[in-house]
Specification:
The protein has 523 residues and is α/β, with parallel strands linked by helices. The protein is built from 15 helices and 18 strands.
């Protein structure tokens, strides 16, 4: 550091007034090996002035290497650099200095200047080119302008930082698309949902990569209207991750952002291809699911009375059919026919009996789903209940070569609820798992108690559920099984909801399915 004949404390400098903006404050680095000139520059910059003058901190260096060390360790706002230094050219020093302090500005001073030299300095990134024969007010004005520019750049950087933080931390999806529907910006929430990093998403087609085929025409039409009509649009679409697996429902608000100079609405000039469309999305998957469940519940409630009357009208002929089938079986035994004929007739009667039984079960399940009934409130040992159901289904599992694994604690898993209804939940889940493993496999049952909740998990190694069917598995009468009624999981969800619980399904095609039921202990 080159010593200067002034006090080392930062002093005040009187600068011209800058209306409507706080006066700049900063660090000035003087780089010159001429000690007399350095002292003069220092005196001009920190000389006495009015009380409200801006304060400047001035540091000095006599060599380029020393200046770079200061820039890298202390930083600076404006550097006043002599063109000719003992170890470097001031022009060559501009880029390293600005690389060390990116928001800074460099002012070159020289005793001999030409137009070409000035142009070359400015092209190298210098803020200004000043002759050593400067007047003090000229140097002060140049430094103030440089400091003001640095301050503006810092303010802009802070605004950009806040904007980026807002975009990254907001709980909505934010995507910016260019004229070809390619991603130019994707925030953290969207990239997490899309299953890619924000950098990996850049340049990829938004519609081709993350919008389901059935919704692509709809969102492309909305984007086109947003670009050409210059008005915001709203559209709801599916949203899938990069693997094409998890699908969500997203409500998009599309708006257009133009670059400076792009034509506005009503202009005859064509729109700039660099115009961006911003898509702000809200994940409405859970909302749509709740709306659907509410609508299903209303429909089922309205069907309750009809279901009771229908059950009475259907069960009477079913019971008569079962009785007549029993009598038919007895009469077959009395027929004067060979054993093969009687065996064939018995087989056909059994088929009819099985179908009547299936119809009776379907009716029972429909009644369970349709009629509103309260639940009992008693202490239920959930772990023992799961054990009982597994014992009940042991022979059925063994017949299909299915191994049952139990991860069930001996005690401590007690919840307040309806024992019979909770047993129905477990039976439905276990039966579903067994039926999903036609070629054998492993059924794992887990029961856990944590955070005032009891969790039941039934996992199988069956065929799994197709990804496009996951959104409908709880819908009444929806089934992926050949002979399923489509009511088992609907009943499960209804009973779990009545216990203020939650039910989730995780499934991978060809790997298996896991159903997790969580209910509060209620104590």
């Amino acid at each position: 550091m080159t010593p200067v004949p002034v006090t080392p404390r930062p002093s005040s400098l009187s600068l011209p007034a800058a209306p409507a903006r706080a006066r700049p404050f900063g660090r000035v680095l003087i780089v010159d090996d001429n000690t007399e000139l350095v002292a003069t520059l220092h005196a001009v910059l920190v000389g006495p002035g009015p009380v409200d003058a801006t304060r400047l901190e001035v540091v000095t260096a006599s060599r380029g290497e020393e200046a770079l060390a200061i820039a890298q360790t202390q930083g600076f706002d404006v550097a006043i650099v002599d063109v000719k230094l003992p170890d470097a050219s001031g022009v060559d020093l501009i880029r390293p200095l600005r690389a060390a302090s990116p928001l800074s500005e460099v002012v070159l001073i020289t005793g001999f200047a030409s137009v070409d030299a000035a142009i070359g300095a400015l092209r190298s990134g210098a803020f200004a080119f000043v002759l050593k024969s400067f007047r003090p007010e000229e140097l002060i004005s140049t430094v103030e302008q440089a400091l003001t520019k640095v301050q503006l750049k810092r303010e802009r950087e802070e605004l950009e930082r806040r904007y980026r933080a807002l975009v990254e931390l907001t709980d909505v999806l934010v995507v910016a698309l260019d004229g070809e529907e390619r991603v130019v910006l994707m925030n953290r929430k969207t990239s997490a949902l899309a299953g890619v990093t924000a950098d990996d998403a850049l340049g990829r087609s938004f519609t081709e990569s993350w919008i389901p085929l059935e919704d692509r025409a709809k969102i492309r039409d909305a984007i086109a209207q947003t670009k050409h009509a210059d008005r915001a649009r709203e559209v709801e679409t599916g949203f899938v991750d990069s693997s094409g697996g998890t699908k969500r429902r997203v409500r998009w608000h599309l708006s257009r952002a133009r670059e400076d100079g792009a034509p506005r609405e009503g202009s005859v000039a064509p729109a700039s291809s660099a115009d961006l469309v911003y898509a702000i999305g809200i994940d409405v998957t859970e909302r749509r699911a709740l709306e659907k469940r509410a609508a299903d519940g209303e429909a089922m409630s309205a069907m309750g009375a009809l279901a009771l009357n229908l059950a009475h009208e259907i069960r009477n002929p079913l019971n008569a059919a079962v009785l007549q089938l029993h009598l038919l079986g007895r009469n077959i035994d009395k027929l004067e026919a060979d054993d093969a004929t009687r065996a064939a007739l018995h087989t056909r009667a059994e088929i009819v009996g099985d179908e009547i039984g299936r119809l009776n079960r379907l009716l029972t399940e429909f009644l369970e789903l349709a009629r509103p009934r309260g639940i009992a409130r008693e202490a239920v040992h959930v772990a023992r209940l799961v054990d009982d159901v597994l014992d009940l289904e042991r022979e059925s599992a063994a017949a299909r070569r299915i191994e049952i694994k139990r991860v069930i604690p001996p005690d401590g898993c007690v919840a307040i609820g309806d024992r019979e209804k909770l047993k129905q939940v477990i039976i439905n889940l276990v039966v579903n798992s067994i039926e999903a493993m036609k070629e054998g496999g492993t059924l794992t049952a887990r029961v856990e108690h944590a955070a005032e909740r009891v969790t039941i998990a039934i996992e199988d190694t069956g065929v799994g559920i197709p990804a496009d069917a996951m959104a409908s598995v709880f819908d009444p009468f929806f089934t992926t099984k050949e002979a399923g009624t489509g009511l088992g999981l609907s009943i499960v969800r209804k009973i779990v909801d009545a216990h203020a619980g939650e039910v989730h399904i995780e499934s991978t095609r060809g790997v298996g399915t896991k159903v997790i039921v969580s209910i509060p202990t209620g104590r």
